[in-house]
Design goal:
Blueprint (H helix, E strand, L loop, with lengths): L1 H6 L6 H16 L19 H20 L4
Helix pairs in contact: 2-3
Length: about 70
């Protein structure tokens, strides 16, 4: 019965909260999204998919630390 009470309908794990935070931040600033074509000067080719994944993983770890209260 204690396990059922601890589960709680409104309880969320830190990992879930960090993932929602990651989605918000990544969507807001465009992290992990390939650069779209633009008019004018463009630098070297877009980042590789591996670089996007590395950025997202780094951002997730930072979000998880923030949620857990373990600041950088």
């Amino acid at each position: 019965m204690d396990a059922l009470n601890n589960a709680g309908l409104g309880a969320r794990r830190n990992e879930d909260i960090a993932l929602d935070l990651l989605k918000f931040v990544a969507g807001t600033v465009g992290v992990g999204r390939p650069a779209g074509p633009s008019t004018g000067f463009s630098g070297a080719g877009g980042a590789k998919p591996e670089e996007h994944v590395a950025q997202l993983l780094e951002l997730y770890s930072r979000c998880l630390k923030a949620v857990e209260g373990k600041g950088a």
